[in-house]
Amino acid sequence: MEMKTVNRGMRGRVLDPLIAFLREETAGGVVLLIGAVAALAWANSPWSDAYFDLWETQVAIGIGGATLDLSLHAWVNDALMAVFFFVAGMEIKRELVSGELRDRRAAALPALAAVGGVVTPALIYTLIVGGGEGARGWAIPSATDIAFAVGVLALLGPRIAPGVRLFLLTIAIVDDVIAIAIIAVFYASSLEPVWLAVAVAALGGVWALTRAGVAAWAAYVPLALVAWFAVHESGVHATIAGVALGLLVPARPIRGRDLLGGLECRLHPVSAFAIVPLFALANAGVAFGGGVLGDALGSTVTWAVAVGLLAGKLVGISLATLLALRAGVGLLPDGMRLRDLPGVAALGGIGFTVSLFVSELAFADPAVTATAKVGIFLGSIAAGLLGTALLLARRAP
C-alpha cells in the first residue's frame, strides 16, 4: 500500500505535469501553424500594407518618466515573449529539480545531443555565409521548436515509443537553455550598468521573498515588472528577465502551496495558445512579391539557415549521441532504439519560434531578416518531412 502511495505521489509531481505539458505543446503547435499561415497569407494579400502598418503602430505604456513607447511588434517580441521565456524558465527549473534533467546520467545523453545540435548548425551556417552582416545570424539554425517537434511526434501516434518523445523533449529543453544564453551574451546591445544593477536588485528582491516563504504570487508581480523594465533598459534583451524570474520560482511548495505548478498551469496555456501564435502572426509575415522570393533563393543567408536546420541538426544530434554512447556516457530512454535516432535528430531541425526570434535580433536590415525567415520556413518544413519519413520507415514492417 505504501509503494502504491509513493507511485501515485511521483505520478502527481512528475508524470502528470509532463503529460499536460506535452498535450498543450502538441495542441499549441497546431495554433502556432495557423498563426504562421495567417501571417504569410495576410502579408501577401491585397491588404499587406495593413499587416505591416499594424505591427509598426506605436503604443505607449507607463507612468511619467517610466513610460515605454514601442511599436506593437516590439511589445510582442519584448514583453509578451518575456512571458513565453518565463514559462520556459519554469519548465527548465522543474526538469532540473524533479524531471528528466535531475538524473545526471539520464540527462547527459540528450544534453550532449543538444550541444551537438547547436554547434554543428552554427558551423555550417558560418561556412556557407562567411563574413559580412549575414554572419550575425549564425545562431538562427541552432534552435529547436518544442511545439512543432513534439506536435509532429504526436501526429505519428502510438507507433512512436514514449522514450522517443522524452529524448526529443529533453533535447529541446536543453536547446532552450543554450539559446537563452546565446541571446543574453551575443545579442545584447551596449550595456547600461545602472539599469543592470536595478534589474539584479529586483531579482534579488524576488529571491528574498521566496526565502521568506511568501506564497502569494501577486506579491511578486511589482518586482517582476521592475526587473523586466530594468533589463529592457539595460541593453540585455528583455526576455532574459522572464527566464531569470522563471528559474527563481520555488520548485518545492511554500506553506503547502505549489507556486511553480500553479503558475505553469495558468500561464502555459496562455503562452502556447495566445502568445506564441501571436508572435508567429507578428513575425512570420514575409511578402514574397517584388522579387523578394527570388532574392531570398539567391541569398547565402537563406540556404545557410535551411541547410543548417536540416543537415546541421541531423548530423549534429546523431553524431553527438553516437559518440557519447560509444564513450559510455548516458543511456537511451526505454523504448528508444538507435534506428529512431536519425528521425528524432531531423525533427530537431524544426526551428521555427526561437529561430524567428533570433533572426529579428541578428539583423538590422529588414531585407536580410526576410531572407533568413525564408530559410527558416524551408529548413523547418524539410526537417519535419524528413523526420516523419525516417520515423515511419523505421516503424514499417
Give a structural overview.
A hairpin with a 2-residue loop joins β1 (58-63) and β2. The chain has one domain (2-187, 237-395): Na+/H+ antiporter like domain (Na+/H+ antiporter like fold). It has helices spanning 2-43, 48-55, 72-98, 104-129, 146-155, 162-186, 193-211, 221-234, 239-248, 259-283, 292-297, 300-326, 341-347, 352-362, 366-395, and strands spanning 58-63, 66-71. With 397 residues, the chain is mostly helical. The two termini are 42 Å apart. α1 (2-43) packs parallel to α10 and α10 packs across α14.
- Count the helices. How many? 15
Low-pLDDT segments, ≥5 res: 1-15
Q: Approximately what portion of the residues adopt beta-strand conformation?
A: under 5%
Read across the widest sheet, the strand sequence of neighbours is: 1-2
Shape annotation: globular
Fraction of residues in H or I helices? over 70%
Radius of gyration: 21 Å
Q: What's the count of strands? A: 2
